[in-house]
């Protein structure tokens, strides 16, 4: 690998951006797509036969050899780590944290109420007791970050959403009924991108208790990650 490509890969890793290395297995030539965004002005992205393969590889976190007309190209994906930022140290969070960790997410729990957000109740994840908007500005959700808002308190939910909507988070969900979400949207109607918020949060699987709701949330996030578009 050329030093310039290695430097770009390191840059992508430091900036938490996705990159894809294409290696022609016939002649050994390599080309790096970085940063990888749908609207990037890059010659390879105009190849409609190759672009879907690249996007699918990115979504699936899977590197593989693409064969066509006797030519082989190794599509090697370099994705940033998955993160899940949960706002609200509630009962649902106690189930969602370990589930998300088992699914490969680094979990950060945000709740300024230290009586709820503490290592006694949540011993296995990073905890921030900052206000959600301050925490989001520090954590900088990227295109590999899911944000889950669970406090059900506008004083905490709304600032978190206002900051998160400015980010590249691939999933944004907020707890509450359809009525609650409608009121939320009305309060935040001056913000752009409100359609990105999944509310009520999670897949509609008829969940009733906190554990089942956590399952529905993780399922919705998985669907957005694997079947959504790259950011």
Give your account of this protein's structure.
This protein is of the alpha/beta class. The protein folds into two domains: 3-78, no CATH class; 83-227, Rossmann fold. It contains seven helices and ten strands. A six-stranded parallel β-sheet has the order 7-6-5-8-9-10, sandwiched between helices. The protein has a four-stranded antiparallel β-sheet with strand order 2-1-4-3, with helices on both faces. Helix 3 (91-102) crosses helix 7 and helix 4 (132-139) runs parallel beside helix 5. The longest helix is centred in the last third of the chain and has 18 residues, at 210-227. The two termini are 27 Å apart.
Multimeric status of the protein: single chain
- What CATH architecture of the largest domain would you give? 3-Layer(aba) Sandwich
Mean pLDDT: 89
Say what the CATH topology of the largest domain is: Rossmann fold
Unreliable stretches covering 5 or more consecutive residues = none
Cα radius of gyration in angstroms: 20 Å
Relative helix content = 25-40%
Number of strands: 10
Measured between the Cα atoms of the first and last residue, the distance is: 27 Å
State the secondary-structure class. alpha/beta
Provide the succession of SSEs.
HEEHEEEHEEHEHEHEH
The main sheet comes to: 6 strands, parallel
Strand order of the largest sheet: 7-6-5-8-9-10
- Which band does the percent of strand residues land in? 15-25%
* Number of structural domains: 2
CATH superfamily of the largest domain: NAD(P)-binding Rossmann-like Domain
How would you describe the shape? Answer: elongated
Give the C-level CATH assignment of the largest domain: Alpha Beta
- The helix count comes to 7
């Amino acid at each position: 690998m050329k030093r310039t490509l290695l430097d770009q890969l390191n840059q992508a890793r430091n900036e938490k951006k996705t990159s894809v290395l294409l290696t022609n297995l016939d002649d050994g030539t390599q080309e790096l797509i970085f940063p990888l965004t749908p609207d990037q002005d890059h010659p390879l992205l105009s190849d409609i036969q190759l672009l879907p393969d690249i996007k699918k590889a990115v979504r699936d976190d899977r590197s593989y050899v693409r064969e066509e007309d006797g030519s082989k190209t190794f599509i090697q994906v370099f994705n940033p780590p998955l993160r899940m930022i949960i706002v609200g140290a509630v009962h649902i969070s106690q189930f969602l944290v370990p589930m998300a960790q088992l699914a490969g997410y680094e979990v950060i729990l945000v709740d300024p109420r230290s009586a709820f957000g503490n290592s006694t109740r949540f011993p296995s994840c990073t905890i921030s007791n900052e206000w959600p908007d301050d925490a989001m500005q520090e954590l900088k959700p990227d295109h590999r970050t899911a944000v889950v808002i669970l406090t059900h308190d506008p004083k905490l939910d709304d600032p978190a959403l206002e900051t998160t909507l400015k980010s590249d988070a691939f999933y944004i969900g907020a707890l509450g009924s359809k009525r609650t979400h409608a009121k939320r949207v009305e309060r935040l109607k001056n913000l752009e991108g409100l359609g990105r918020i999944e509310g009520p949060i999670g897949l509609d699987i008829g969940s009733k208790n906190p554990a089942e709701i956590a399952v529905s949330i993780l399922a919705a996030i998985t669907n957005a990650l694997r079947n959504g578009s790259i950011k």
